[in-house]
Amino acid sequence: MESSVDASASTHLSTVTTKRALLVASHAMERAFHDVSVGQPSGQPSGQDLQDPHSLPMADTGLLIGYFQRREYFDHEAKRYAALAEMGHTIIVAFTGPVDSLPDGVTAVQLSSHEEAAKDWVLSMVRGGFAATLTARDIHQLSAVEATLEASRLFMSWSTMRRHLALEDTRAHLEVLADRLPPAVLARAGTHIDASVHLPVSDVEDRLASAADHLLRSVDAGYQRATTLRLELESTKSLAERDQLTGLYNRHYLERYLGSGERPTDLLALLIDVDGLKQVNDQLGHEAGDALLRCVADTLRENSRPGDVVVRWGGDEFLLLVPHLSAEDGLRYGKRMNLAIAAGAVDDPWGHVKPAASIGVCPARQTPLPMAQLDAALYHVKRNGKGHAALAPGLDLSVEEVLHRSAGILT
After folding, report:
1. Among 163, 180, 297, 309, which is most exposed with the fewest C-beta within 10 angstroms?
2. Which residues of the chain register pLDDT less than 50?
3. Given phi > 0 = left and psi -120 to 50 = alpha, else beta, which region is 357?
4. How many CB atoms lie within 10 A of CB 320?
């Protein structure tokens, strides 16, 4: 049997689009189906004048048919379809998977994974003088403009709001399911289609349908262009805010972070200075120095907590911003970083280089950061043998007190 998407593609212009764009189009069509008025203009035949006498009781309701590739895809839309069923619309869905536990008023057909209809994404609807259809087939390719695998799936699709074309597709989709539908549901669905066929199509309706078709295609193309530009901008922004050598954030990111709502009001800053970098550069070359910097950067990244911000400050210095730590806990944290850095291994052939760092600690509750106090703390560390952490001058807690209190952790 020829599938619905093949039948559409043979007579209508198809386009390639992403799953996300199809969802946008589907929801727009469902909203139009929900909101459309089916009352006739003055001088037009009423429900009583239509050839099908069953149209009058359903004058303000319609038919919606949806094919889903899997049951879980329908479950994502179940509430929307349940709401339409409660309004009295005839709702028919089809998918592979169990057809139990469905919302009241929703009739489901279980598709075999081997039949062509199971490969299609279909949304067809008729309500009085309004009809629309969307048919799509997964082409098993991915778009580069989406951030997630599911959203980036590509489909060959066709859609229209031209009533005569939409009614042709709706009838074809219904025929695929006809022998598996309850007779009453099938008869009611046919009545909706027949009633719409007998309503005259005005020039205004035809022009609006043409405009809607053009708009859907334009929105799809515009959405893909906008998504591409957004991803390119995010990629460029991400590269601009990363240090090329270490992959850590750089000062550009730090400036944005400190000036945004991301910044906690209670921050502690640790300024980390890599000990001996100049000697490594002078004696072994800058490649060895770069390897040492990457080693320290990796250690900081791996040993920092979720929510901490690690920045390459420049040269041989890194900055670690830690939310919600007291000065005492921050000093303890700095000492743990000292130990972790000292335990790191520089990549070969410079494995004999032993990393070490001096760390200054200071609260940073205001902007700009207290760099003078952090530098003073580093000076204190350097003057007293390097390789350990110290609080900025003027803080109540001394290094000796903290080391004494945390001896069990630091040794």
Report:
1. 180
2. 1-2, 4-11, 39-57, 396-411
3. beta
4. 24
133 three-class SS: strand
Taken in order 132, 137, 142, 147, the sign of the CA dihedral is positive
- pTM for this predicted structure: 0.51
DSSP codes, 31-92? HHHHH---PPPTTS--GGGSS-GGGGGGTT--EEEEE-SSHHHHHHHHHHHHHHHHTT-EEE
Q: Residue 113 to residues 67, 68, 96, 118: CA-CA distances in angstroms? A: 13, 11, 6, 6
Helices (H), 345-406: 371-383, 399-405
Query: Is 380 exposed, middle or buried, given 0-12, 13-18 or 19+ CB atoms closer than 10 A?
Result: middle
Torsion angles phi and psi, residue 305, rounded to 5: -95, 160
The two structure tokens encoding residue 163: 């009533």
- The DSSP result for 218-253, as a single string, is HHHHHHHHHHHHHHHHHHHHHHHTB-TTT-SB-HHH
Q: What CA–CA distance (Å, rounded) separates 153 from 379? A: 56
Q: Give 3-state DSSP helix, strand, coil % of the chain, rounded to 5.
A: 50, 20, 30
Report how far apart, in Å, the C-alpha atoms of 153 and of each of 70, 120, 161, 184, 306 are.
15, 14, 24, 37, 32
In this predicted model, what pLDDT tens digit does every residue of 68-95 receive, in sequence order?
Answer: 988 999 999 999 999 999 999 999 999 9
Decide if 331 contacts 361 (C-beta within 8 A): yes
Q: Cβ neighbours of residue 129 under 8 Å, at least 6 residues apart? A: 38, 40, 163, 196, 199, 201, 205
Q: Which residues does residue 64 pair with via DSSP β-bridges, in sequence order?
A: 91, 125
